[in-house]
Amino acid sequence: MSDKTSGIKMPPYMKVVSEGIILNLHVQPRSSHICFAGLYGSSLKLKVHSPPADGAANKACQEFLAKRFKVPKSSVVLKSGASSREKAFLIKGISLDKVLSQLPYTK
Fold this sequence. Notes:
Shape: globular
Order of helices and strands: EEEEHEEH
CATH superfamily: YggU-like
Distance between the termini: 18 Å
Number of strands: 6
Low-confidence stretches: none
Structural class: alpha+beta
């Protein structure tokens, strides 16, 4: 762990990288609410309205994360899982403190 994260217990769904923070999400499409919904294994569960077709759920995740962390949509990048429920999103240029303050289930 880098000096930046020393002494901080990192949630299993989060990883600090040089560009920002990577969040591992388990996405549940076609939900009635858009929200974080607890842990799913070592991922954070995110419910979205959109169906898992034509990248709609991926776009919904990107928009939700950008709004939640108050960053431009271009700063939220899907790193893996484009056609899977298990996704990894990079949030560029954001501090660990800001992410921890905006996420549930960080203890």
